[in-house]
Amino acid sequence: MAELYVKPGNTERGWNDPPQFSYGLQTQAGGPKRSPLTKRVAAPQDGSPRVPTSETSPGLPPVGPPPPSSKVSRPPPFVGSCPPSRTVPMDSPVVESETLLEDVLRPLERALEDCRGHIKKQVCDDISRRLALLQEQWAGGKLSTPVKKRMALLVQELSSHQWDAADDIHRSLMVDHVTEVSQWMVGVKRLIAVKRSLFSEEEANEEKSIATAEQNQTVPGVQHDL
């Protein structure tokens, strides 16, 4: 505590005037200098309160959680004219095109008509009866979706004259779904074989006709009607 020194009596002051104190003795005595209490400290730039260095212990980290940040993170604003894409939920149903009976039955019936006159009537009637069983079971809902899809592929291969591919599909149906297709698949198999045989004969006849025409054009002495 600072020492107070009362000056000796002053003749110019009254007896009831308050005494005058002198603080010069502290400076003369060499006491520690104190910083004036009116000194201002510069405010920090980041807005957080700053503790004077004299009140903190050197080398020790501050105790307690950090002060909460006044800035709230926000998502970046949307840039562009297109709205953000929406994800489709995984459990949404996927609509598949249903295989129609007409798309399968009509090509088979046309193939059967092409075979009439080239094979026995008994064979054609048996194939026709098997196709009628196929139509009945399909319309009655007795055939599963995999069978319908494979039959659609079989008909496509048959119409494209891909005999090996059509025969492979027939065998896969007999192995995987024999209980569903056993009553009418025999007729489809026979129809594939007959169409393949007729197509081979037609190709052979066509090639023979082309070869004969070329031979007649190259043989000398053969007259052609104009």
SS-based structural class?
mainly alpha
The count of DSSP E runs of length 2 or more, i.e. the number of strands, is 0
Reading the helices and strands in chain order gives: HHHHHHH
CATH third-level topology of the domain at 101-213:
RNA Binding Protein, Prp18, Chain A
Identify the overall geometry. elongated
Global Rg: 54 Å
Q: Tally the helices: what do you get?
A: 7
Which superfamily, in CATH terms, is the homologous superfamily of the domain at 101-213? Answer: Functional domain of the splicing factor Prp18
The CATH class of the domain at 101-213 turns out to be Mainly Alpha
SSE inventory with pairings:
Blueprint: H1 24-28, H2 101-115, H3 121-139, H4 145-159, H5 163-176, H6 178-181, H7 185-218
Helix pairs in contact: 2-3, 2-4, 2-7, 3-7, 4-5, 5-7
Quick overview of this protein structure:
With 226 residues, this protein is mainly alpha-helical. The chain is built from seven helices and no strands. It has a domain of 113 residues: RNA Binding Protein, Prp18, Chain A (Up-down Bundle).
How would you sum up this structure, described in words?
Helix content is 47%, strand content 0%. By secondary structure, it is mainly alpha-helical. It has a domain at 101-213: Up-down Bundle (RNA Binding Protein, Prp18, Chain A), CATH 1.20.940. Residues 88-96 have low confidence and may be disordered. Keywords: Activator, Apoptosis, Cytoplasm, Nucleus, Phosphoprotein, Receptor, Ribonucleoprotein, Transcription, Transcription regulation. Residues 1-91, 205-226 are annotated as: Disordered.
